[in-house]
# Entry
Amino acid sequence: MTQYLLTIYQPDGEPPPPEILGPVMRELNAMNQDLKAAGAWVFSRGLHPSSTATVVRLRDKELVTTDGPYVESKEHVGGFWIINAPDLDAALGWARRAARATTLPIEVRPFQDSPEA
# Structure
């Protein structure tokens, strides 16, 4: 089994209203339950807005800490799953389900230390 990171990219700004977010969260909860039942679920979490980020970087041999996201963009990482899948096609199947539920882009990437990556 290979481990994959499925990343949700969401637009910056206020979250959708409850009448939109509620059905999305129900679909994602069902997907998480199915991932667990299939033995594919490893870990998943949503993230606070990118405005809560803190970036630590090395600049001229000094560590600099900056509040806020690393770059200004129109979208940010909103959450992720780490899953086990037998191959990329299986991981893409889960990503398609997540994209349908959220209507947002889902990036799929294998971990470097996975046996088949």
User: Anything to note?
Assistant: DSSP finds two helices and six strands in the chain.
